[in-house]
């Protein structure tokens, strides 16, 4: 046997010539295959003989190196011989007819180190695989299948663990007694002074909500016109009644603080009202008046 080379196409030949060359090929395969087996046997016997004598330690490698053999080639031949020697005659003949590169591969000590390798090797011994390329493709396929199986198993185990954790949590929740929490909220008591002041403003100026937008919209033109006229008249009367206060600078300066504060509060309320009316006038929608 020789290493794999490009496959020859016998279909290009006539029938008799193709048959003739096939016969020659088989004969050469038998010769070469047997030669590799014989070489392996000779090396195996020499190695065993020298290893039985401590004084000849290291001599075996020196010996086969002297005859032109390399260490890797020697051990491949010995491993191949061991493989063939341990098979029955049918498998032995099968192996000797296979490419040497393939028999080297399945004769490695690690050829059965994994389940995919063991299965691929067995396929060769069964006659299902006949080239190194086919062997490697089959091995890659089985290794991929094994990896997928391991991943699926890992995911299943992870799912089981997560389910167990969730089950434990649910059981703890069901077993735990409900916890009752009481929350105390402090409710502030309104300041009586502020309440009294608010009531006084209501008496003077009405409900403050009229300045905060809580009003009723009307669209009756006569009602709006009447309200404007009434408003103008009231403002005129107010100005006539209190216009002189603008000249009371000295009187205001001499006034006690409580009196000034009352004026300020009243003025603030008036300004709030005026600003609210001004905003209502600037709106594009219906006029707003207090309802």
From TrEMBL:
Keywords: Coiled coil. It comes from the Bacteria. Residues 132-176 form a coiled coil. This is DUF3102 domain-containing protein. The lineage of its organism: Bacteria, Bacillati, Bacillota, Bacilli, Bacillales.
